[in-house]
Amino acid sequence: MNETIYTFNGKNITMNVCIQIRGVLDVIQRVMNIDFSEAVALFYPSDTYQVLQETENALWAESAEFIANRFFQEIDEISI
Questions:
Q1: How far apart are CA 62 and CA 27, in angstroms?
Q2: What span, in angstroms and rounded, lies between the C-alpha atoms of 79 and 20?
Q3: Nearest CA-CA partner of 60 in 9, 31, 28, 18
Q4: Using CA of residue 56, residue 7, residue 52, residue 59, what is the dihedral sign?
């Protein structure tokens, strides 16, 4: 992957963000006992995913579990 999609302080962090997204999807799959495509369908339209793409906030630097917990809190709030 040579294309720069995500940057932080002028550095290409595309691979870092992609690895985090995959890690978050793995956590969602495991916790919710769903397959990859279902996890993607839930995560991609979420506010958490949108915030993750805004690299200035450095959410991408947190653990996949931390980001997934933020996502789970988001969907819990929607369910209430």
A1: 14
A2: 25
A3: 18
A4: negative
- Distance from the first to the final alpha carbon of the chain: 40
Amino acid of residue 67? I
The pTM of this model reads 0.90
Contacts 24+ apart (CB under 8 A), 12-19: 13/55, 13/60, 16/60, 16/61, 17/52, 17/53, 17/55, 17/60
Query: Look-up: residue for tokens 């995560």?
Result: 43
pLDDT tens, position by position, 48-57? 999 999 999 9
User: 2-22: per-residue pLDDT in tens?
Assistant: 789 999 999 999 999 999 999
CA neighbor of 55 nearest in space, from 26, 22, 27, 16 = 16
